[in-house]
Amino acid sequence: MAEELSLLGMWASPFSCRVKIALKLKVVQYKYVEEDLFNKSPLLLKYNPIDKKVPVLVHNGNPLLESLVILEYIDETWQGYPIFPKDPYERAVARFWAKFIDDKLLPAIRRACWGEEKGREKAVEEATELLQLLEMELKEKRFFGGETIGLVDIVADTLSLWLTSFEEGSGVELMTREKFPKLSKWSHEFASTSAVKENLPPKDELTVFLKSLFGKPAK
Amino acid sequence: MAEENKVILHGFWPSPFVKRVELALKIKGIPYDYVEEDLPNKSSLLLEYNPVYKKVPVLVHNGKPIAESIVILEYIDETWKNGPSLLPEDPYKRAEVRFWASFLQQQLLQRAILVVKSDGEAQEKAIEELFEKLKLLEERIMNIFPEGTASINQENMGLLDIVLISCFGYYKVLEEVLGFKVMDPEKTPLVFSWLTTLLEIPVVKEAIPSHEKEVLFIKYVRQNALNPTAV
């Protein structure tokens, strides 16, 4: 029931977006609460006193934190569209790449686009190498999940709209069509999927926001 | 076929990440072969099995490799249904376990490693943050374990217990090397008693390396980090 499921999120957050996409795929109704991260609501502080971050999914009064944890919970709680693969080995592979994106790739991309000028070249090299690994993992598949989007695609949401905004906002080019033909194609297909399209924030506003959040662009 | 259900663990004896997998395999009663990796000289097999990180642990099941310790633990739990479950049945409780496992690893273990590898102001900052995060865990223990932790044993221990042991099972070693208590029964009594309960469990006791060996290793890690020598 809609009144028993709420998502505390933030319009520019790719992590909140992941949860929105998952709930859409499962066709689950929920109440969305937009949080002002510079003025956090008492509700957010109550449900996530630990790190006060979004997204927070509140189901029957019980809060769930961390987008990856939330995605697993959603898949285990609601039937219908499978977000995780069924086979344990495939699941392990999916979890591995999801963690890779969050633990290694995203920090590297942030450093490459917004880090100090001094270390820029090295950071770009590192991010490029890591993106290559993902490019190879995609192989000839349409999506990481196969014919339809799955866990890794959802977690890689940052690589579609957000990376484009990062690149525009910072002036640093990472995922070019020449270097990453598969990922570039994937990015477009992913963003065109209906469950994703209607949950993405507007690009121009996002670029402005990210630029103001992360600081000085590359010269 | 000889390969049927063959389990091989590539590891490194002091690694907390490898320790987790070893404990899970032992608790579930899964027979496995162990390959000790010499980390400065990684085997070509390891590099083939984990080209992304080139790290241990790697679990190889029927020739298929899995990397990342918590991913491996979930795989073990899903694949071998005999023995205790490492994760609870209820999806919300599972989410709690996953959240706190990630917290233990990212917030606590990473800072503990930083405390070992730094000194002066950097170390002081890491210590302060570590205790801040430990306090957060202390405050939530009654939520995680509403029945308390005293009755945890070999039959009912789970993923979170395994992760805690791997992160802080060697707390006395840390105390000896650093000269202060990381696990202090006065500061974090509930976390401390959870840990000590776990350390009494036979399978855990057997899995912890010798105190002296660990002390030497942690001292070496600290020394290396503070005075890096060109190799």
Number of beta-strand segments of chain A? 4
Basic shape of chain B: globular
CATH 2nd-level architecture of the largest domain in chain A: Up-down Bundle
Number of helices of chain B: 10
State the secondary-structure class of chain B: alpha+beta
Please count the beta strands of chain B (DSSP E, at least 2 residues each).
4
Radius of gyration of chain B: 18 Å
Number of helices of chain A: 10
Q: Characterize the quaternary organization of these chains.
A: heterodimer
CATH topology of the largest domain in chain A: Glutathione S-transferase Yfyf (Class Pi), Chain A, domain 2
Domain GST N-terminal (chain B): 5-84
InterPro entries (chain B): Glutathione-S-Trfase_C-like, Glutathione_S-Trfase, Glutathione_S-Trfase_N, GST_C_Tau, Omega/Tau-like
Function (chain B): Is involved in the conjugation of reduced glutathione to a wide number of exogenous and endogenous hydrophobic electrophiles.
EC number (chain B): 2.5.1.18
Question: How would you characterize the overall build of this protein?
Answer:
The complex is a heterodimer of chains A (219) and B (231). Chain A is 54% helix and 8% strand. Chain A has ten helices and four strands; from the N terminus they run βαβαββαααααααα. In chain A, strands 2-1-3-4 form a four-stranded mixed β-sheet, covered by helices on one side. In chain A, a hairpin with a 2-residue loop joins strand 3 and strand 4. Chain A is globular. Chain B is α+β, with helices and mostly antiparallel strands and 231 residues long. Chain B is built from ten helices and four strands. Chain B has helices at 16-28, 44-49, 69-79, 91-117, 120-144, 159-168, 171-178, 189-199, 202-207, 211-226; strands at 7-11, 33-36, 58-61, 64-67. In chain B, strands 2-1-3-4 form a four-stranded mixed β-sheet, covered by helices on one side. The longest helix of chain B is centred in the middle third of the chain and has 27 residues, at 91-117. Chain B is globular. The mean pLDDT of chain B is 94. Chain A binds chain B through residues 50, 59, 62, 64-66, 68-70, 72-73, 76-77, 88-89, 91-93, 95-96, 99-100, 133, and chain B through 51-52, 61, 64, 66-68, 71-72, 74-75, 78-79, 91-92, 94-95, 98-99, 102-103, 136, 140.
